[in-house]
């Protein structure tokens, strides 16, 4: 497994543990379709949280929020809508698209409802 892939997996594990620690129920990890992916899907209160996890080296010169360009947002929404067709019971939940940034020191920064 490549180093970047390993660090991404560690980041997703840390993110899932964090979400559970604040009360989220994790439903899916790496929910993939041919047109996109949601790293973690969870429920908290009356919201369905679709979270992108970025295990990011802060010395890279830019912030992980910068990766949420229009194409990325469109793909995440498309996967979310596909999920609703597969599981209509989720339709009553308010969607929340989030970023979970895991620093190289394994610190968690949770950005909720970023778009």
From TrEMBL:
Gene Ontology MF terms: nucleic acid binding
Swiss-Prot/TrEMBL keywords: Membrane, Transmembrane, Transmembrane helix
Domain of life: Bacteria
Family matches, as InterPro entries: Restrct_endonuc-II-like, tRNA_endonuc-like_dom_sf, UPF0102_YraN-like
Transmembrane segments: 79-100
This protein's record includes keyword Protein transport: no
Family from the record: Belongs to the UPF0102 family.
Protein name per its UniProtKB record: YraN family protein
Species this chain originates from: Leptospira perdikensis
């Amino acid at each position: 497994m490549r180093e970047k892939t390993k660090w991404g997996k560690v980041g997703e594990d840390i993110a899932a543990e964090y979400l559970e620690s604040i009360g989220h129920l994790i439903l899916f990890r790496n929910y993939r379709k041919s047109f996109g992916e949601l790293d973690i899907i969870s429920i908290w209160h009356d919201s369905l949280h679709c979270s992108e996890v970025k295990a990011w080296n802060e010395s890279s010169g830019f912030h992980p929020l910068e990766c949420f360009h229009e194409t990325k947002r469109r793909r995440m929404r498309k996967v979310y809508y596909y999920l609703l067709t597969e599981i209509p019971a989720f339709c009553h939940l308010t969607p929340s698209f989030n970023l979970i940034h895991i620093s190289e020191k394994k610190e968690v920064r949770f950005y909720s409802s970023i778009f």
